[in-house]
Amino acid sequence: MFLTVTPDFSLPLADPVLKFLIILVIILASPLLLNKLKIPHLLGLIIAGAVIGPYGFNLITRDSSIILSGTAGLLYIMFLAGLEIDMGDFRRNSTKSLVFGLYTFLVPMLLGTALCLWVFRFSLLSSVLLASMFASHTLIAYPIVSRLGIVRDKAVSIAVGGTMITDTLALLVLTIIVGMATGQTDQAFWIRLGTSVVLFAAIVLFLFPLITRWFFKRVNDSISQYVFVLMMVFLGAFLAQLAGMEAIIGAFLAGLALNRFIPHSSPLMNRIEFVGNALFIPFFLLSVGMLVDYRAFTSWETIKVGSCMIVVATAAKYIAAWMTQKTFRLSVDQRRIIFGLSNAQAAATLAAVIVGYNVILGTDADGEPIRLLNESVLNGTILMILVTCVTASFAVQRGAHNIAVREEFDRSEEPQTEHILLSVSNEETADELVNLSLALKSPQHKGGLYALKVIENHSTNDQEWKRSQRILQTVVRTAAAADNAVEDILRYDLNISNAIVSVAKERNITDMVVGINRAKDIQPDSLGRILENLLVESSVGTFIYNSVQPLATVKRHVVVVPESAEREAGFVQMVSRLWNVVQNTGTRIVFNGSMETLGVLKKLLAGKKGEIAYVHFSDWSDFRPLLRHVRSGDMVWVVLSRRGGFSYNPIMARVPRYFSRQRPFNNLVLVFPVQVGINEGTRYLT
Q: What are the distances in angstroms from CA 449 to CA 142, 477, 478, 640, 663?
């Protein structure tokens, strides 16, 4: 006998399966329908939320599950803003972000206070509180710049940094005004507020990185890593609330703290962006739309108050963006992005108006409560949220699209070919070889990855074939998690190095990544028979990699370059690959070499956005001064040469063994740039 379940279609819907189905249909259909109308899909989600919400067709109520999902989505947006930002660019633009943050805080505060005092006839406390709402904003339109791939543009860095500043100041004003309105601003209040804010920032910015590095070094499971990241986001948000601040500040600072541990091209970053864009962020946008109550707009007082708020908020944010553009000589499209990202009023604004509405100062003659912010302001805020989100979406869409098209055109003018071959031999090191290969690639180029496993002809048993297939599947799966395709190749050959060279020629390979075991492969005067033969038979750029810690936990890259390396044919290509690593991992790099070589490096990297240091080092007979500056967490890159190259030095025969012994707990990469004119059959070490 089967149990019959009768679906309940009464409104609002109570069936969780049907509710979730409707939300998924909206998330799927919004971009498909609105792209044809040139309307940003996030705006479609807000409108859809208004339609299905309690003030529309009342299909779905804004219950605790929607509020929970929406809150998670808002925190996710702020976390992604901190996570995706280029930290080097962020530090260089910190002054610009500070200036913009002050512009976009002070201009709305002045205009808003004037509006409330002289037009609305509010009290001073109510006027300052309402003005702080104009000063704060939410990065509603951030998914647009993320989807178009311009999160590293200067304008985005300035806007995101300014958001943290103005939201922090606005929320501090909220805390202080409420304290003054309720008579709690004694000396203990100021001490408690200052101490809690400083303690919160110290925990997130200094303790979070230590915990993350410890966890990532010990846990390689992808699911556990993602859950850990989510935990840190909500922990940062909770700590912000304990400090008397809004949770979005904690989520943003958590993103900054974890930024260096999650490379932009890594599988973990791809998972974070995928889940956020597919679920969390759409839920937040729908929850914002559900707040829209069209019935409130039938009141003339609400329309008047809301219209004034919209005009002042939009004008103030535009003036701040215009002042920033003129101050730092930005383009019109960059101004549009700054204005659009800073114009949307949502989470912080809503939090401020609800707090102000709930603060009761007393009662009037009729016994009605006198609130810090009245009902007209509450309803006008909903109208302002809707209009500013629309304006922000269109402004960012236009500016970001123009910048993305221009960058794509510039890239198309630069003919770049990157075909990277991974030679894999065991499953344990496959993931890190993939991570290094992805880091070596330019962030703008997808594909061009090949994974090769060679089976020697005398190893023809089924176990070896199954093991090789498993290794290649691991490589393909890891790369796919980072949204990169890998062509897997399985070869039988009597000679492994011959098979690698043959594949390199067939696939027009530009770079090879080969794993190495220090204890097994590096002998006193040898890199091992296979590697020696490979270096002799192939002249492409080769990276011989030994990993002892995940690439994501590396703090700094220390590169040792021999004298005259700049004369090698592959020097520029090698520097380009190293720079890709810096860009993809958000780390620092230190070049050690002769004055002439460092001079060429400075010219090649002039204008590059990143933390670069140059240290004079030329005595390859004594590496002790250099090793004294190699710290835990550094990754050592030693640039070597095949025998007969311009930069070849007989001492190089002892270098691999020396570094493997002296720095056994640092990642080590032996780099052999492209070299031409090397005699065939000439050994590297002998």
A: 31, 13, 12, 24, 30
